[in-house]
Amino acid sequence: MATQTIPMDPAALAEAEARAEAEAAGYALPLVVQLAPVVELDDDQFFELCAINRDLRIERNSRGELLIMPPAGLETSNWNLDLTMQVGLWTKRDGTGIAFDSSAGFTLPNGAERSPDAAWMPRSRWEQISAEERKKFSRVCPDFVIELRSPSDRLRTLRAKMQEYLDNGVLLGWLIDPIVGRVHIYRPEAPVETLVKPDRLSGDPLLAGFVLDLREIWQQG
Hints:
Blueprint: H1 10-25, E1 31-33, H2 43-51, E2 57-60, E3 66-69, H3 74-94, E4 97-100, E5 106-107, E6 113-114, E7 118-122, H4 123-126, H5 131-134, E8 144-148, H6 155-167, E9 172-177, E10 182-186, E11 193-196, E12 200-202, E13 211-213, H7 215-220
Parallel strand pairs: 8-9
Antiparallel strand pairs: 1-3, 2-3, 4-7, 5-6, 7-8, 9-10, 10-11, 12-13
Helix pairs in contact: 1-6
């Protein structure tokens, strides 16, 4: 009897391969909770689930699976705070947009709910979101995102996540990898640009005048 091969989408394949690799190395990866076909949460129900489990960091992928993220180590948390502060301070000075930290949840057009480590969108787009929607995981994709790799993150999973951001409307994404000293820059319809331990990253022209200082991460990493 012939066997049938069911193709797996690239994001799912990346997650499966990363999980197998991490388990072999003894790393803690996000706990994946499969709900379908038993339970299907709509956006409001997912938001309420996260609200009553505030101590958990929960994302949802485009297949409806819940991803319960492990807590960040102290070093990663410190670096992430520094990145978020730099984005926030520039946003206040610039005044043209709104910045978000890692607790913000965005519902992407493909149905996934993601929480990048830092994000930004123009104030003009923010003002189009109703006051009620701002209280939830709004159906909006930020223009700019940062993902910071922690020791428990598999690179192929983060790359798939960055591509997902682009496919859903992100205009600039930075994947910062302190583990190997690399930064991967994502832009629509352009090859991924990889830099080796750059001291600074410029957000021009999207984030005019914004420069992210990375020297402290490379010195400590």
